Amino acid sequence: MTPTPKPSSTPISASGDKTSRFATLTFERNVAAPLSVLWHAWAAPAARAVWASPSSSVTVEFLEADTRVGGREVSLCKVKGQPDIRCEGGWLELEPAVRSVNYEVISSEGATQSAALVTADFADLGERSALVVTVQLSSLAEDMEAGYRQGFGAGLDNLAVAAERTMVLQRVIRAPRAAVWKAWMNPETLPQWWGPEGFSCRTKRIDLRSGGEWVFDMIARDGTVYPNHHLYGEVKPEERLGYTLLWGENGPKHADAWASFEDQDGFTKVTLGMVFTTAAEFQEAKGFGAVELGLETLGKLERFVASQ
């Protein structure tokens, strides 16, 4: 997570002189979302991209994201008129819905500004959940502690809001991961099972590569047509994909979504997540049964894979 940029920050000088600062920072958030949802909002790369920017003036570009022990996350924090800030980190511990530990190194213009160890502890509060983030910071530039306090605080505020409009669906598909991925990422087979019971798909264009799109109509049993447009971002074969949902072709954004695929006792655990654009859209989706309809879709996927 990138600290808020500070124009006055002074990185290591060319002569090797530096200002050294050590601090332990603690951030606590009580979030109106179930623990499992908060965990995915915290850990899933597609979700992290939604809430990572500390303010509207900051753009965070993810160059690499691999949320697993030993995996790296690399991002650029961009502010108009200032040098880019590079954040490079790695995951040291991941205990789902319990704890994560990662390190991160911040640099700008080739000079290291800080290093930190970030520990996140999660607690179940029923319909709510709690998050405590501890940052052990070693600064190599002026005012890095202040920047971390502001940047982490704003980022975690964003996380709390994003988690409250996040929907997560899971199903274990009784088939190997390669078979499940093939059914999902094949332009011939995806339209055959996508959608809840009684729905069919009418495809206009489909290109399931990174940078590709799927423009299609979902047609209900009563003939009602629901235009859809998926824009595909990251596609990591047999592991995960990220995409944006639009209301119809080139329409307004509905949600940022992802699907991940994990081995589980010879089968495949599929996680489908969506961060809705607004809280109102999230509540509307819940109201018309999006959770139940999404689980029906995953059930159709399992039946399709079993028939192949």
- What class would the helix/strand composition place it in? alpha+beta
The parts where pLDDT drops under 50 for at least 5 residues are: 7-19
Judging from the principal axes of the Cα atoms, what is the shape? elongated
> Into which percentage range does the β-strand content fall?
over 45%
Number of domains: 2
Q: Please tally the helical runs, counting DSSP H or I stretches of 4 or more residues.
A: 7
**How are the strands of the largest sheet arranged?**
1-7-6-5-4-3-2
Query: Any idea of the CATH class of the largest domain?
Result: Alpha Beta
Helix content: 10-25%
Radius of gyration: 21 Å
Q: Architecture of the largest domain, according to CATH?
A: 2-Layer Sandwich
* Amino-to-carboxy terminus distance: 43 Å
CATH superfamily of the largest domain: START domain
Q: What name is given to the CATH topology of the largest domain?
A: Alpha-D-Glucose-1,6-Bisphosphate, Chain A, domain 4
Description:
- The protein has 308 residues and is of the alpha+beta class.
- It has 2 domains: 21-163, START domain (Alpha-D-Glucose-1,6-Bisphosphate, Chain A, domain 4), CATH 3.30.530.20; 167-307, Alpha-D-Glucose-1,6-Bisphosphate, Chain A, domain 4.
- The chain is 24% helix and 45% strand.
- The strands form 2 sheets. It has a 7-stranded antiparallel sheet with strand order 1-7-6-5-4-3-2. Strands 8-14-13-12-11-10-9 form a 7-stranded antiparallel sheet, sandwiched between helices.
- Strand 11 and strand 12 (240-247) form a beta hairpin.
- The chain is elongated, with a radius of gyration of 21 Å.
- Mean pLDDT is 93; it is low at 7-19.
